[in-house]
Amino acid sequence: MPGSPIALTYRTNDNTRWGTGQGSNLGSAEIDQNFWNLAEAIAGLETASSLPNGIASITVVGTQMSITLTSGTVLGPFTLPVLMFNWRGAWEPGTNYAPLDTFIVAGVGIFTVMEPYFSPVTFNPTQVGTDGNPVLNQLFGATGNSLETLSDVLISNIQNGQTIEWNATAGQWQNVGPLGTMSLQNATAVAITGGTVTGLPTPTNPADAATKAYVDAAGLGAASVADGDVIANITGAPHSPTGVTVSALLDHVFGTTTVGTVMYRGGSGWTALAPGTSGQFLKTLGAGIAPAWASGGSGVTDLAAGTGISTGGSDITSTGTVSLAAIATATLLANISGSSAAPSSTTLTALIDNALGNTRGAVLYRGASGWVLLAPGTSGKYLQTSGPGADPIWNSPAGAGTVTDIAAGTGISTGGSDITSTGTISLAAIADGDVLANTSGSSAAPVPTTLSALIDHIFSAAQGDILYRGASSWGVLAPGTNGQVLTTGGSAANPSWANAPSGGSIANLDILANISGSTAAPIGNTLSAVLDAVLGSSQGDIIYRSASAWTVLAPGQAGQALISGGAAANVAWASVASPKFHVVTLATAGAALPANSYTHGGGAADIGATLTMAANGDVTIDGVAVSSLGGGGSNPLGYRLLIKDEAAAAHNGIYTVTQIGTASVPMILTRATDANDTTVFGGGDVVFVGSGAANDASIWVGQVAAVPFTLGTTGLTFAHVAGGTASGTKYAIACYVPGVLTNSQNLLFHKFSKGATFPANFTATPAGHASEAGGSTNATGSTVINVSKATAAAPNTFSTVGTITIGASSVTATFASTGGTSVAFAQGDVLRLQGPSSADATFADFYATLAGFES
After folding, report:
1. How far apart are CA 775 and CA 789, in angstroms?
2. What confidence tier does 414 reach under pLDDT thresholds 50, 70, 90?
3. pTM for the complete prediction?
């Protein structure tokens, strides 16, 4: 890359590129400084670029053309091509003729060829080509040794001084005159009988007399003009042309001298586009539509906090952190509105009320399909398990004791008065609602989930199960035998099923627990009080499942994010990482890789994920064969590639070459270690591409389709920021050979004016141009056209570099390059297309276009 290198701080050492790194992870300030230096360099290119060196004038003398630049540099002279007739003698049938070939047909006339022409058995002077235009142009009629033999010439009574002129009525050339001595002019005067007329002024009107010298000079462009001027009339009225500058001519034709005006080709001719407003860019609207000035695109300018979101107290207008808004302790995010809405801070009680019911005295249990409420039973009944696979019920257990009066305690409803015979004890109804939870079986974004589905996933979905807190974690007690009741074993033992007691009950929504701090009989406590006593009561605590038990993660620092370590690690608070800078050797240039299969690394990390090509062989990326990297052999292993154009955007990313494609094995790419996990790679990361036909020295920025982002699952694309050609400069060669091919017929010779490369198997170039070939008549059998190369040093020694195969009974062509690799030609090399040694009997009118790009 030209210019001074950008000052960047690197972590690792690389003596072939940036040199010595600092040997440790970059801090936030160092990362910010790297991005600032890159931004300053890009801004400098945008604002300090020099004006282009334009063309000041073009001078043509005879067949020599010179170009003078605004810097004063003179390019040339260049020899301009001159069309010349090629005399071929007498016309012959079954012969190939090229444009401007000229021949004679006995008794008919002299003809010149207007487009490639294969002569038929019988001469046809009005033959037309495939485009409907005449193939031949007759120059003269029947031929002989004198004009009198021509069929369209009538010569009689020839006299000295006569001329011939066309008689439209007779349709013939005839001799007329003599015209008199006045028509015989000399170089300086008009000769008349008796003397000459001299001193004629320069003519100014069409009827003025002129000397032969003036006429001769006018025919060559009139009087001399200044170097770089053209002959034109810019007076605003009919007038003799004079020498004017190209700038003055353009000012007059387009009627403007405004600085910043741009000239472009419109629908009917060249026209001028007035300058746009300051800062606008010239925008192309595609073929057939005039360009226009347009303003550059804009991004997000203001990000405000919506429901449940915090942006730090004010709108984000440049950079900032978006996080979930704080909620009250002992609450969770849920939607209990009765319809679709953003989740808000909700107590567990309100959530259960909404999701299952709020009847006072109801009991929550696991049914056949989910967690449901058991309506309050009759006064004096006990909750009885019916065993596995059956729901618990209210029943009167066997034993002594009679309940005579049940009063309503805290959280219990007995219908408004004490129950002395029969009645209903119920819990308050809860509203419908979901919670934000992940029940996918692996790390994933939380989604709306019913409370029943959440408990099923975490603990059990067996009918009759009971949820309780064991010594190290919450657990599930399998259903007891029919008729048993649930009893507590105290603070140091798990609950169990036992035969029904003679009496007793617990309050609505309470849990039998001992949170006194010492051994004691359990009493009714709220779930919040139990969690406070067992796990902790600090505001901002997070409860999570560790390897052995549920535990508490203390609040992190302000602005930190909760990061999952995956299924085998604990969650933790961490600072959000800044975008990172990556360097690769090659990048795909608008086309996906050949057919391949993708193997996911698993989870939020995609460590070990691979792209395996479906077919064996080398792969060409952006005009460069992967097998040639580092000089070939085993050297390409470990080279880094940016894959950014896959149909499945989740498969895009940075890969390394872990298996080189050969004739016996396919190429395999593996995600690079600095881009295989969301902790080291994500949206906003910058990628620099070091080589390639289209992407050399280009910069790209990663963009993710959704947050949270999972490598291999979430779509990942890369936006072009700067550098590279983005498309490549095309180099195209075309030919047309009329008629049926002959044995080993040479169809095309082309000497390269500049180095060019054709993609492997002549597939589409980075700019999208494709090689094509065919004919007008189907081939009887498979016909192979040989593509050969000769170097500039040995232009007559050819070696095969590919083939064009025309299928049997068709005109469809299939291209192949030797070894399935790209084909490169240096300046001065020669390309030859040659037909088969035994030509097909029917295939005719071969045509081909070979599309590559300048090397």
Report:
1. 23
2. low
3. 0.27
